Amino acid sequence: MKAGIIGASGYTGQELVSLLLRHPEIELELVTSRALAGQPLHRSIPRLGHGAGEMQFVNPSLSEMIATPCEIFFLALPHGAAAEFAIPLLEAGKRVIDLSADFRLDDSSTYHEFYGSPHPAPEWLPKAQYGLPELNDLSWNNSSLIASPGCYPTSILIPLAPLLAHGLVESEDVVIHSISGISGAGKNASDRLLFCERNESCGPYGLPKHRHLSEIEEQLSKFAKKPTVVSFHPHLAPMNRGICSTISVRSPGTPDADSIRECWLQTYSGRPFVQVLDDNSFPETGKVIGTNRVDLSVVADLRTGRLVLCSAEDNLVKGAGGQALQAMNVCQGYAETTGLS
Amino acid sequence: MKAGIIGASGYTGQELVSLLLRHPEIELELVTSRALAGQPLHRSIPRLGHGAGEMQFVNPSLSEMIATPCEIFFLALPHGAAAEFAIPLLEAGKRVIDLSADFRLDDSSTYHEFYGSPHPAPEWLPKAQYGLPELNDLSWNNSSLIASPGCYPTSILIPLAPLLAHGLVESEDVVIHSISGISGAGKNASDRLLFCERNESCGPYGLPKHRHLSEIEEQLSKFAKKPTVVSFHPHLAPMNRGICSTISVRSPGTPDADSIRECWLQTYSGRPFVQVLDDNSFPETGKVIGTNRVDLSVVADLRTGRLVLCSAEDNLVKGAGGQALQAMNVCQGYAETTGLS
Amino acid sequence: MKAGIIGASGYTGQELVSLLLRHPEIELELVTSRALAGQPLHRSIPRLGHGAGEMQFVNPSLSEMIATPCEIFFLALPHGAAAEFAIPLLEAGKRVIDLSADFRLDDSSTYHEFYGSPHPAPEWLPKAQYGLPELNDLSWNNSSLIASPGCYPTSILIPLAPLLAHGLVESEDVVIHSISGISGAGKNASDRLLFCERNESCGPYGLPKHRHLSEIEEQLSKFAKKPTVVSFHPHLAPMNRGICSTISVRSPGTPDADSIRECWLQTYSGRPFVQVLDDNSFPETGKVIGTNRVDLSVVADLRTGRLVLCSAEDNLVKGAGGQALQAMNVCQGYAETTGLS
Amino acid sequence: MKAGIIGASGYTGQELVSLLLRHPEIELELVTSRALAGQPLHRSIPRLGHGAGEMQFVNPSLSEMIATPCEIFFLALPHGAAAEFAIPLLEAGKRVIDLSADFRLDDSSTYHEFYGSPHPAPEWLPKAQYGLPELNDLSWNNSSLIASPGCYPTSILIPLAPLLAHGLVESEDVVIHSISGISGAGKNASDRLLFCERNESCGPYGLPKHRHLSEIEEQLSKFAKKPTVVSFHPHLAPMNRGICSTISVRSPGTPDADSIRECWLQTYSGRPFVQVLDDNSFPETGKVIGTNRVDLSVVADLRTGRLVLCSAEDNLVKGAGGQALQAMNVCQGYAETTGLS
Q1: Alpha carbons C293 and C276: distance in angstroms, whole number
Q2: What is the pTM assigned to this prediction?
Q3: CB within 8 Å: B199 and C196
Q4: pLDDT of residue B11
Q5: What is the pLDDT of residue D340?
Q6: Is D151 a residue of the active site?
């Protein structure tokens, strides 16, 4: 199958290019970037090397994109911009996996509240499928548009959603603390992201309403089957990649780690990219970098009646490009791990 | 005043040496280390340079320590070991500031529970004063023994204790998430602390009952005037120094950041080492490294009815050596900032 | 083909395990470690995940190793220890790729001089083939024993050897400066390799006779066709992986970058893992991490009559495990890039 | 004495502010920045804290600067811009320590060659004194204008200049390899300096004619008493601060480390900021960070007939702000270490 990537100048786009070039079922036909058009791919994605051949970033018009033999497009554009490309491509019969926030929410007023401007195409929101393969039954029959989840939401929904669905944890007083590597903040030449500003430093940001909170709550509410509001505290730490989330939840009864683990093992039975750690072992981002895996652990705190859920993932793989490929694999009927192991 | 440091081979001891050598009222007379005895100080504390002169680590007997003209001793020993030195020194009329956990708790059973062995000298626990200068009225009249607080507790008590004391936050469902630089784990040549194991990685550890939790809860309970149990989630991130704590608390009424800030400003009025940040600014460890300061901020989350308290400090300065000097300054009647600005 | 790895507890061994598990022509049958025997592979090589299945580290006797169906063994043992395993395996008809220094030198007295003890089996030195695929014609017909080059030598021989062979640079007054990530120092729990000791610091070590210098000079002498003695200055910098070497050489005539580039392009024509960079672009380790590539550049300095040759590689891939696989690929007749792209 | 800092928005300017605020003989009267005018100092120099009081960045006219009671001005401006301020201030009778490159060279054609534009005020070049206190006899009687040396030149001239002056090393075939922390590249929001671009990466840049080479060669030529041309290879490594330089030189006779050390010890006898390390110990940047010190070591390589000189310094202290203060201390007759220990 031939595929295109729209907007490949950022860290997510670069990861997508690397992954799709290695995917045995995909021929990467088109990689666009307004800023980098005319440059060979390997100049801004150096790990590719000259081995990526003569392929260049291009900047075609929408009609030229549509005219390509690509059946599927991955959009790695900023929110707001993605919709402009997604809709014409979909209308032309293409399949689209959008890695931006444009189609992740059901409710356009939530989009407006968290993203600060009206949604560009609210009528498309109900048509998209939310693309977390372990929690959603993905199929091109549902929709040709997959909204690939954000990096923070992935690290939170995987541990928390099934527990809410099974009533194993309470939906009130959920407190989520996440630590992200710097690539999560994007490739923007701002003072704040300079090496000397971020190295040897960590701290919270975006409190109390980081944009990803909208998506986290909307998804959690579906699994909890009631409106769910949570506390979400993102932090940056000095590392290139990785997110770890530590989630404190109240237990309806005496907290019991075994029943949590059991629920995870059943929910994710047969899923290659969720790994429940043994007792006394905690997820660390360094252990999942470069993989499409989410590692999980749970600890019961009998003194507070709470449970501590911990997860770690690579924000650019399971939190972005890898997850998009995984969703494609599932919908196309390829093995889920194709190009990802 | 002449001073000695007992057990100066670790990161805390090294910081103490650096600080005391610059302190204008102190003459550093004695620096002990079993492992480094006979070596010049600057070999293992290179920033000192040859300018530290011929001073060497020594390994005297207790009676030799007592025979020195030192009036005050700083203990930078592991817990358990500190009591062995502190008590004879106190009995000989010396003043002692202990940076270990040996005298931080009132309750010897809590010590046993969290440290895994009976307290070596429980009769001394009620005699020590807990040495957080901003929250305790320190005086040599109270005791010649100061138990200098741990690094995590400092970053948590400074923001949280006065709010509990004034009833501005609830004492239940407190969830504390902390991120520490690697020096907080000490200078132990273990695989886990090797550069390649910790670099480019972060994650939780010590859940659910890190040893510092005992001290955090005992102190919070005093300020809340009722038994207070909290959730505490320590993490390591790849940086040498610094701790940031993000504390989620329930508000008794509508959460209001201004009243929190007001309480902090009043409590810490005139205190040089607590800084309340402006709106929309968050503490970062990189901004306090090398200082004895704790930076604070607060955000109200009307959606969850909770408040988010954030703090940052240098774990080796305000979280260890700097705080010990500050306590000494206060008790000796020196200006609080002497040797610390 | 079935393969075994002997001594897989270090960083090189871990990389080999990861690479061989993904290699489509190889079935990894046996992974030994005295220290880790009985543990599942994924516990100490976390990126593997449970997906590595139930495979465990084992600690068989030599005769048990010989009795396995493995046709090829990779040795990731310390120097001195490797020979003890290599020779019996070879005598039993196995193929061996040794990643230690035990068979890299021709001259046992050089071994003694640089490694501080007599060579354990000098009669085997002439039997081994030095395994740098771009510079040596590798074949099982030559020998069943391949001595895989060290990380520093790879980064130096690739740029320098063909230029000496063609007389494009002088063999005197060669000054080589290399910077290595910390994994190059191995996984030893020593104070010197602790995170806080290496982070935010860089400097030289091992001057003036790092052990790899023996191998560098012996190889360069072959290409220069005369005894060649060089200055070699290794440094450590705070990063997990990567080596960059910057080599200053005298030009026999007016220094001319184009002729150097031309020589490289001809020598490495068709070789997938050597990349000559464009003008005005310099190798950086961050651009080759995770690849089996060496990036090269050259600058002429007309003022000094010297040329500056620069290279960068991943010390654990092209400098260790990747190179060993590449050598196997060549000897087995697999495509050179099999399992490495 | 009252002092002003012109252009304090970069890393050098920030360091100067911190140092001058602590200097017991100086009252910092004025801190200018076009970009930050109106902001309190502590907002962009967070380590200062609110303790820096209400002092703000200002943006006065030149005549307003002249009208202040400041007797001395430190210029932390880009090259080219510094001269515009320095000359009117000098003509108004002020003392000026310029941290830019504008007055470091004697020869305006060298300036043009290396900085790409004609020198803005060549008639001032012979009037400035080059401000390396250990190698130049600094005095306000010589000039009211001190050109404070660059960070690379400091790390190179301290070890090399006295050896050339005494004929202990040859002036030909000098090869200098330096590694700098990222703050050396300045505080510019460019892609190249983003955290994710520089972290986990190192490599050379600016070959073969980095701008500092002009200053290095002009100074070395004076000490060697003949035109001296050297090879200079700067590199960036992922750390905030620090420069280490490793210098390979030919020995006129049999290389002898002791005679080099002896020359250093004599040249720098009584100088508090040069430290010659013991045998078998090498400078590391982590050991000098936060100090005004240069650490030195030497190794003789009998095989090549060369000597390896190694140095390490904090590029923002001894390589910039600290050195400027040291020069002021000397000229003012303050103890050399005032405000610097």
Answers
A1: 10
A2: 0.97
A3: no
A4: 96
A5: 95
A6: yes
